[in-house]
């Protein structure tokens, strides 16, 4: 009986397509639209020890949230593989560039050129089909979803064994081993395709867009930011733990912490407005005072969680976080840093260096999907 690979080669792809020359795959990063230059600067800084610097002409359009690195040497690739960048949402590595003639042809070409990697593996696999996260691409979303649909239909019809190992996005556990096929469509006639084994640097949601569900009871949309940060933690705030929420008004974060069952101290000069407090499992104390100088009183135990979303310059927030860590006033932290207008990458490096210098159990710094001109630092002391 012919193997799936032979079947793919002989019967599946029209001869003229199977003879097209393969381009050298590139390395595609997805970030928040508008942050392409920042991400590229972060990558260049991260690769400064590589033998050759990354070329700067890697952004096609500076508003799509895509940074495509081409002509990388093995040394640069190896460094990229092991580095997690703060401003990256998702990565496609290696990413191949594919012109689209018709949906059927491109689906066949994708299966022929890329799925032989998945075929011999015993691992389950998933498929992320997405476009840049900008409004003008809404119409393209349907088109890339159609490619996904045709690919899945073709696999079901012809390669049942491979198809049966398919699992929809985000249904596999973050620590499960699996493979990820990604299609990122950046023009009606062009798509980037990548298939790779899942690494911690590949986000489980298509395009790295982990959209959290808003709770209409929450007094602010900032609620989404803490939900996303907590969803990425090995252990989110939980029942009976103490949490201080600095810059709490109007109360989105406090609302989340109360829902988790925490005993919350909400600190803000503004008003914290929590609806239906008696229906939430946690308990609340409000302190209308300055969050920059707030501290546990002498003899009080430290907090389980420092949560901070204060509108302060990043250098002040950093000083505050380091003070809380050094004085052991908290066990865990979730802290938002508003980005400086100039040189955000320099600030990120200073932040990471300060956290590296402390003996933390773990920490992460990331521009999350629900972050705008800001980043989130989480960690455990
Ligand atoms: C982005 S809002 C916080 C939103 C909040 N996390 C929520 O979920 O509703 C920033 C807050 O920081 C507060 N803030 C800024 N400087 C502060 C300070 N020195 N002390 C206390 N609060 C401060 C502001 O009053 C404002 O309510």
Number of domains: 2
Number of helices: 11
Structural class: alpha/beta
DSSP summary, beta strand count: 13
| Rg for CA atoms | 23 Å
Identify the overall geometry: globular
Widest β-sheet, arrangement of strands? 9-8-7-10-11-13-12
The chain-level mean pLDDT equals 90
SSE string, helices as H and strands as E: HHEHEHEHEHHEEHEHEEEHEHEE
Helix content: 25-40%
* Low-confidence parts: 13-21
**Ligands (ions, cofactors included):** S-adenosylmethionine
Q: DSSP strand (E) fraction? A: 15-25%
CATH topology of the largest domain: VC0802-like
CATH top level of the largest domain is Alpha Beta
Structure in words:
The chain is of the alpha/beta class and 381 residues long. The protein has two domains: 4-208, VC0802-like, CATH 3.30.2130.30; 223-380, Rossmann fold (3-Layer(aba) Sandwich). Helices cover 30% and strands 22% of the residues. It is built from eleven helices and 13 strands. It has helices spanning 4-12, 15-18, 36-46, 74-82, 103-114, 138-158, 160-163, 223-231, 252-259, 314-326, 344-356, and strands at residues 26-30, 66-69, 90-99, 125-130, 179-187, 190-197, 242-246, 263-267, 283-287, 303-308, 330-338, 362-366, 374-380. It has a seven-stranded mixed β-sheet with strand order 9-8-7-10-11-13-12, sandwiched between helices. A six-stranded mixed β-sheet has the order 2-1-3-6-5-4, covered by helices on one side. A hairpin with a 7-residue loop joins strand 12 and strand 13. Helix 10 packs parallel to helix 11 (344-356). Bound molecules: S-adenosylmethionine. S-adenosylmethionine binds at residues 219-220, 222-223, 247-253, 267-270, 290-292, 309-312.
């Amino acid at each position: 009986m012919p193997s799936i690979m032979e079947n793919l080669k002989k019967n599946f792809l029209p001869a003229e397509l199977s003879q097209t020359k393969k381009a050298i795959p590139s390395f595609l990063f997805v970030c928040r639209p508008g942050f392409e230059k920042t991400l590229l600067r972060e990558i260049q800084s991260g690769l400064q020890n590589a033998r050759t610097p990354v070329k700067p002409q890697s952004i096609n359009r500076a508003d799509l949230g895509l940074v495509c690195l081409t002509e990388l040497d093995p040394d640069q690739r190896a460094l990229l593989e092991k580095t997690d960048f703060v401003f990256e949402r998702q990565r496609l590595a290696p990413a191949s560039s594919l012109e689209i003639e018709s949906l059927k042809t491109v689906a066949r070409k994708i299966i022929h050129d890329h799925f032989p990697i998945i075929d011999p593996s015993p691992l389950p696999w998933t498929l992320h089909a997405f476009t840049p996260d900008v409004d003008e691409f809404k119409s393209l979303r349907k088109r890339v979803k159609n490619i996904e649909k045709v690919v899945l239909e073709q696999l079901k019809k012809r390669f049942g064994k491979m198809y049966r190992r398919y699992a929809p996005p985000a249904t596999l556990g973050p620590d499960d081993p699996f493979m990820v096929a990604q299609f990122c469509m950046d023009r009606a006639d062009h798509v980037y395709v990548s298939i790779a084994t899942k690494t911690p640097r590949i986000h489980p949601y298509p395009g790295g867009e982990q959209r959290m569900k808003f709770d209409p009871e929450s007094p602010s949309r900032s609620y989404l930011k803490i939900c996303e940060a907590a969803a990425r933690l090995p252990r989110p705030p939980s029942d009976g733990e103490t949490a201080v929420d600095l810059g709490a008004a109007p109360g989105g974060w406090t609302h989340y912490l109360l829902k988790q069952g925490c005993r919350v101290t909400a600190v803000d000069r503004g008003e914290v407005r929590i609806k239906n407090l008696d229906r939430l499992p946690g308990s609340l104390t409000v302190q209308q005072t300055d969050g920059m100088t707030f501290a546990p009183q002498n003899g009080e135990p430290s907090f389980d969680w420092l949560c901070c979303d204060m509108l302060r310059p990043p250098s002040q927030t950093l000083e505050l976080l380091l003070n809380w860590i050094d004085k052991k006033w908290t066990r865990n932290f979730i802290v938002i840093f508003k980005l400086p207008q100039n040189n955000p990458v320099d600030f990120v490096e200073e932040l990471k260096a300060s956290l590296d210098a402390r003996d933390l159990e773990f920490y992460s710094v990331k521009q999350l999907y629900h972050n705008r001109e800001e980043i989130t630092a989480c960690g455990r002391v």
